[in-house]
Amino acid sequence: MLRVTRSSFCKLVAKLLIVALVAPMFLWAGAGTARGQMWPTRRPISVVLLEIQDITPLKEGEQRDTYLADTLKAAIWTQLHENRWFQPVPENDLQLELQDTEHYQKPYNIAEQLRLAERLQAHGVITGFVEYLGKDPEKPVVGLRVQAIMLDKLTEEYVLGATVTVYSDPQPGADERTLLNDAIKKAAAELVTKMADYKVPEGVVLLASKLTAVKINIGETSGLKEGQRLALMRLMYDRVRERAELVKMGILRAYEVQRDSALCEVETAPSGVQVGDRVRAIWYEKPIGPTPPDLVAPMGAAGKKKHIGKVLTAAALFYLIATLILSNRATEEPRIRALEATDPAVAGAEYRAPEPVDARLGPQGKLRGALFSWHAVPGASEYRLELCPDRSFARDKTLRLSLAPRFPAGRGIEQAVVDRADADLFLAGQRTVWWRVGVRSDNEAIVRQYGPQFLYSEPQELVLGEN
Q1: What's the pTM value of the predicted model, to 2 decimals?
Q2: CATH number where 361 lies
Q3: Around Cβ 193, how many Cβ atoms within 10 Å?
Q4: Is the dihedral of CA 18, 20, 24, 27 positive or negative?
């Protein structure tokens, strides 16, 4: 009788095949459109069409007519509604929300646009610009230059857009208003079609190291361009909402784009970059009209960094070899491990509210780029930095940043950099800002003693414009 013997290698291969077949089913089942999750791939994207600005240059003494902007907005809304990839929020719902003049004032800043998206349960807010190019002296046509850009609620960056230049069909004998209406319809249709055809590049981090470049799994085939910036996101558990949500952690910039992958440099990432972090590409075209500052950065000249990944990789290998040699000659502390219920740091009284150390404003005394530091807390699973114009820290007036601990054993100084584009707009007109830091833990022993909520430090005052 023949006897079949299965080697351990064959068993391992069989298990890997099972995982490869089953994993996509779980990923598909977990997909959704809740706030803080990746965009839906099989359902429309919910958007708020806020306003279209007419940026046509005016002659001296000439008054701006709102007909062009209003008619174009209505035409774009209709095209969005008819397109299967978009689901525009009804205009009545938008106008009802904008009646809250306490929170919305024209021109709408980034914080107000993000609030609109949150309140109206949309993925993003579309704004745009239109420029009337005039009537052709030789042909009976008029021209328009139109641009639309979408602010993403999750990444707080522009991630989708389109720019078109169109001319009306020749209509001998037609007046200028008739030609203009024809150009508006053509511009709206072409603009929405172009936006629908663009698939926002999204992927995950494959390799993350302090010494080498960050490698992601999207490249030229996904539409990623050299020099394009990407928002870095991490899946974190929100205890208030009792669900896992994506949280923006920083910004990357792609400097070497290959067919199906890319190497990126870190622009900002206070909590570091981890394998498995999500990335979403930021729109690369510069707006043709005025927008809130520091939101869209142009693509840099990344050509000089073509081979920096290879150089850094070689340096990392050299560093690794040197570390292995030196490790035999020196005695080091054991690596930080997860805290157990029997550890003194957990069973004793070392778990506490964070103790603030220092706060330094960013360039030119701005809140964006400000550096906050505090003493690490043993057993911490998450920190929350909160900024508010007053000591109330009311939910609708507070800017919150979630941070992963760098020193879970509590030996070190934790730091956070405010890198949100709307930080200064959020506190516009304020001379001071109050800040505090909260900590929570997932350790069972700590939760039993202190509960699952955040423990906050005493509020600290920071005067804007001073360091």
Answers
A1: 0.56
A2: 2.60.40.10
A3: 15
A4: positive
